[in-house]
Amino acid sequence: MEQWTEAYLDIETTGLSPFCDSLTVIGIFLCNDGDNEVIQLVGEQANRENLVKALKGVGVIYTYNGSRFDLPFIDASLGINLGAKFRHHDLMYDCWSNNLYGGFKAVESQLGIPRQLQGVGGLGAVLLWQRYQDNNDQNALALLLQYNKEDVVNLKALREKLNDYQH
Known about the structure:
Blueprint: E1 6-13, E2 23-32, E3 35-42, H1 48-54, E4 60-63, H2 66-78, H3 82-85, E5 87-90, H4 91-97, H5 104-111, H6 122-135, H7 138-165
Helix pairs in contact: 5-7, 6-7
């Protein structure tokens, strides 16, 4: 069984409230000395058991605004407090300490972190899920998963840029 040293985590949801809205995708980019794997738990797969299994052996979880959004949403939705089970590092606060403000996409832009999928943001992700759910639109699901994958992969790029930025 692979031991992953770090995980980059980002969620997609149907809205901002874990009490009214649902998890649609939990994206996880697992990394260990050059070995990388992206896991995406979609819809019904985004459950407690699968999440615990995906994060088995992880040393630290990195997020952007995860301490205010992703982790509380997961806790409220799935009843698992990732912050208590894992070391968690929210890269947003590192950005703030380097005068990098705005959402994740804005910070990516400021640091020159490229993105293939342009023009999709949080609301777009909600609408893509809705198109998938309402019409079984596989293209919408594929775009949502690409968006989420770029989020988690770019979290690692952000962390590496911040390491360079701070030295």
